[in-house]
Amino acid sequence: MKKITICGGGSLGHVCLGFLSSHDDYSVNLLTNHPEKWNRNITVTDIDGKLFKGTIEKLSSNPQDVIPGADIVLFCLPGFLIKQTLEKVKPFLSPDTFVGSIVSSTGFFFFAHEVLGAKAKVFGFQRVPFIARVVEYGSKANLLGYKASLNIAVENADNTEDFRQFIEKAFNTPVNLLQSFYEACLTNSNPILHTGRLYSMWHEWNGVPYDHCILFYKEWTEDAAQWLIDMDAEFMQLLRKLPMNPKAVPPLLEYYESSDAKSLAAKLSSIKAFETIKAPMKETGSGWVPDFESRYFTEDFPFGLRFIVELAKEYRVETPKIDIVYNWGMSKI
Fold first, then answer.
1. How far is residue 141's CA from residue 16's CA, in Å, rounded to a whole number?
2. CB neighbours of residue 96 within 10 Å
3. What is the count of structural domains for the chain?
4. pLDDT tens string 238-284
């Protein structure tokens, strides 16, 4: 039986716990700052109503209780917690333990190389395997969407094909191996898609509250789509300069089967799994306003777009649209 420890209790942590612990082949532990808020029994309901019932073997805020003996340690954490959590778990890792992240675009590989060293067994997903939402913290979550296939980067595995097959079985989804960690951690998903949308919505906001909470995808505009296209074109220029296969990260127009801003906006606004996702806003006495303390801002700018901006400078790639969006976002947090 494979032993897996999940680090983090956010939406993806909930769904991964329920989904993986529902397998008889896996024993799943949880490292969380709030063990007292968790029930050992967790239930996940997917978009088709299928129920996954799992049991957490051990849960603790102390890595010594849940890390030793783990075959896999899977981070489901925001970017600002990755480095410090790597430092906390490092003393309890065995040389054969794989440490990975469900999200690679928030600095995981850069931090893992720094903390764990060049020989550590690490892996990361190019895109998250699930769209996840918490229903009842510590016990219930919804799995709102699956991916048709998953791409992962793996470093220092004794047998990468065996590891690929393990991830494929665990997540019940076809898995492809990437050639370089850059292909996993540099993505045009959240760091570009989220930030470009936020800039388009609010870079000219005059402080007047909205009469409703904007639906992030369902109300996608052609202006936001054009910013996305322009930022993505600059991003693609960077990928062509890096030691990686640039084809591993398809342009957003190709990924979303679109040809221009109009068709891209139509596509993004019509994806069923995304239709209820709200923009990061908070309600006030007079209406709805942007929430600049949301993870969309505190995560996607300093722990997402930041690495693209830094690499672009290092490799001397001009990114004027990305720079505009990045500087605006950083000024808001």
1. 10
2. 9
3. 2
4. 999 999 987 888 999 999 999 999 999 999 999 998 999 999 999 99
